[in-house]
Amino acid sequence: MAAHASVPVTSRRTDRRTAHRPGTAALAVPVVLGVAYGIWAAAIQRNAGSSGVLTGGQIVLGVVSGVVLIALGLGLLRVQSALPREIRAAAYATVFGCAMGFLYSLSDHSVLRSSGIGAIWGGAMLLVSFYVFYTHEQ
Fold this sequence. Notes:
The chain is an all-alpha fold. 75% of the residues lie in helices and 0% in strands. It has helices spanning 12-19, 24-48, 56-79, 85-105, 111-136. The two termini are 37 Å apart.
């Protein structure tokens, strides 16, 4: 029995597999941001010390914080299409707010003040990302 001309030839499995695959540029953004974040964290920790000499602990801090941010960014990039715009904006805001609060805490400020700075930056990111997701949704 012949199929109608309007029936798609591709299977659902192929469509599902290729529908959520991000491009190379989209994968490069979390990696570049993670590398810059790790360098920034190590530089803040280096300037916080009195000697100003680069140590192994500062390198480990930069590498670990950069790798964690890359993992969070790639994980969020992978699941973002399944999330509604409100939850997606809140996820981006949480990652950004925590990252900024951690960087602020590296410069020897209190936990309460670092949490406040992270919450302020997270709130700003929530507003901006919700606006972007709302205006670009089909």
